Every structure is written in structure tokens, then in C-alpha cells.
Amino acid sequence: MNTPTHVLIAALVFARPGARLRSCAAVLGGVFPDLPIFALWLWAKLAGLDESMVWRELYFSPGWRDAMDASHSVPLYAAIVLLLCATARPAPAGGTAPGARWALRPLAVFCWSALLHIAGDFPLHIDDAHAHFWPLSDWRFRSPVSYWDARHYGHVWAPFEAALAVAMIVALWRRHGSRWVRAVLVLGALSYLVVPVYFAWMAH
């Protein structure tokens, strides 16, 4: 699944108008698992490496693969959520919640958003699948369906994902009246055009 779609899903599920910290945590959790991939691409561009080398060789190299597996690890995010649940304390009767407990709420949202990201990736990766149970296991689920490869139904998934993205952008636009949120939604919509154009241009 494309990163903007992950972010839109996380925002739709967890972001709320007026809850800026929670909303930011949701967006960050939606994008965080893919940050090593962006770092790889940026590093390769700065090093002047060919695009095919990035996705055919470096993507599968041990160092970068480990970083991507760690950022897509279900046990790591689940452990943080369990730790938050174990350390949370109920607010005193008639009082306000302790500051520490309030500060942990965005972290929980961040983790849930990251786990939602992983759930979206699970059925849509083949050779580029992540080890979602790292460091407990290096097993990778290689789905018969790819979100991008036309040889594995990518041409079927792509228009569905595009329609889903449009529906989520409309829903979030109606929910959030903030100008900066709507500006981000416009940028997100444009990314669905810019990324395919970029890869088509690089291919030629």
C-alpha cells in the first residue's frame, strides 16, 4: 500500500478536530514504518545511485532490510502499547488525569497507527514483504497480490486504492475545517499523481 494511503487511513481512524497532539501522533504513526524506505531513497539520490539499484539491490541488502523490518515490527509496537496499559493509572475521583498519563496517550495512538499501517501492508507485498514479527522471527508473508506489480494484480489494486484515497480525502476534508489540514490533504492528493509520473519518467 502506498504511504499516503496509510496516512489517510490512520488520520481517518484516529485524528480528531481540535485534538492536535493526537492527530499528529496518528499521522506520524501512519508514515513512520516507511521512513527507512524514504531514507534509503534519499541517501541513494544524494549518492547519485541509479534508481534500479535502489529497488533491486539496496532495498534487499541486509542493513536496509533490517531497518525496514524493525520499523514494521508488530512485537515492538505491541510491546509499547502493553507497557502503556500496564503503567497507566486511573485519574483520582473528581480530579484530573496525571500529567504522565496524558502524555502517553499520543504514543499509544502512534503505535496503533503504525500497527494499522502494518495490517494494510500484510496482504499486499510479495518479494518486498517485511518481516513483521522481527526480532522474534524473520518469516515474511509473501502474498499473491502486490499493490504495485501488474504481474500480481497491481493493475487491479491501484484503481481501488485511488478510489479509496479519494473517499478518505473527502471524508477528512469535511471533518476538519482547519486550513493547514486541508492544505496537507491537497498535497497528499497530489502525491498520487507525482509519484507515478516520477517513476514513469525514471523508467524512460
Assess the beta-strand content as a share of residues. Answer: under 5%
- Tell how many strands the DSSP assignment holds: 0
Q: Structural class, please?
A: mainly alpha
Number of helices in the DSSP assignment: 9
Low-confidence stretches: none
What percent of the residues sit in helical stretches (DSSP H or I)?
A: 55-70%
**Gyration radius, in Å:** 19 Å
What's the helix-strand series? HHHHHHHHH
Major beta sheet summary: none
In a nutshell, what does this entry contain?
The chain contains 9 helices and no strands. The protein has 204 residues and is mostly helical.
Features:
single chain; 67% helix; globular; 204 residues; 9 helices
Structure in words:
With 204 residues, the protein is mostly helical. It has one domain. The protein is built from nine helices and no strands. α1 crosses α7, α6 packs antiparallel against α7 and α8 packs antiparallel against α9. The longest helix is centred in the C-terminal third of the chain and has 25 residues. The two termini are 24 Å apart. The model has no long low-confidence stretch (mean pLDDT 89).
